[in-house]
Amino acid sequence: MAKKNRMNNEINAGSMADIAFLLLIFFLVTTTIAEDKGVLVKLPPWSNEPPPEMKLNTRNVYSVLVNADNQLLVRGEPMDIKMLKNNTKIFISNPQRLENMSEDPAKAIISIKNDRGTQYGTYLEVYNELKAAYNELWEEASMAKFGKNLTELNKTQRAEITDAIPLVISEAEPTQFGDEK
Amino acid sequence: MSKFKKKQGNAQPAISTASLPDIVFMLLFFFMVVTKMRDTELMVTTNTPQASELTKLEKKTLVNFIFIGRPTVKNQPKYGTKPRIQLGDKFATPDDIPLFLEKFKTTIPEGQRQAIISSMKVDGEVTMGIVGDVKTALRKAGQLKINYSAKSRERTK
Lengths: 181, 157
What we know:
- By secondary structure, chain A is an alpha/beta fold.
- Chain A has helices spanning 2-8, 16-30, 81-93, 120-146, 155-164, and strands at 31-33, 37-42, 61-66, 72-74, 77-79, 109-114, 169-171.
- A 5-stranded mixed sheet of chain A has the order 5-4-3-6-7, with helices on one face.
- In chain A, a hairpin with a 2-residue loop joins β4 and β5 (77-79).
- Chain A is elongated, with a radius of gyration of 28 Å.
- Chain B has 5 helices and 9 strands, in the order ααββββαββαβαββ.
- At the A-B interface, α2, β1, β2 and α4 of A face α2, β1, β3, β7 and α5 of B.
């Protein structure tokens, strides 16, 4: 008789689903889907000494100022942020070999300066546009040189392109205007 | 005809729920893998701006977060509306950043400490003053890899 019972014994798995649901809901509530995406930036190391004076040819410097009213001043001229990326690209690559633009993409330097009162949103937008200009130039160079997208290149090919057009965005210390009261 | 009649005659077969636990477990594991424990309660609003040139942070264990924004409505009576920095689950000043970074470093194996990234979740409406102070503090502490957290959008034409 005992043998018969053992044969028919089965653990009731009907409540398994309930238990799993409970766990699932617990995880849904206590966790977040991490949306860890952002603009990656490498800061320059801190030094107490003032940076050494560098003699730069002004034609190679693309200065972007963002003031406390979120307006842009690019090389002494006001500019709309929508124009920034394309103008930066033209400056770096200088397709017409103009006298007042960079001699060579490798020599071009982008310089950003902002006020303390500049909105972070605007600052990031400007930074993003400048980075976009470089990314587009890299993609174009990659297509022209290897006939592939930038993401399909291997490490040495990628390095070749980023060495020819190095990303140089230097940030000046912000000026003290318009900080939050 | 007789075929149909036969079926109707049969007792209603119940839908088998035997695979239900498996399905739910699959969902459970999916959520366990793609999500991250909510370890900090946000005390500031961080409505991050949009950007197109985004990098995905791969190793989540190597990322620490710095939140900057105005205190949430709940915290406003106590802390006002001026933008503040939140480190871990406390409000902080830029002076607290070196200690915060040191504490985080101790949780990471020695060999991987070079790869630590500070993710800054900053509200788009905050002014650069406080962000600049944090950046200076990070530079002084030698934490040079940072990531401005942002929502994705299309690249402008």
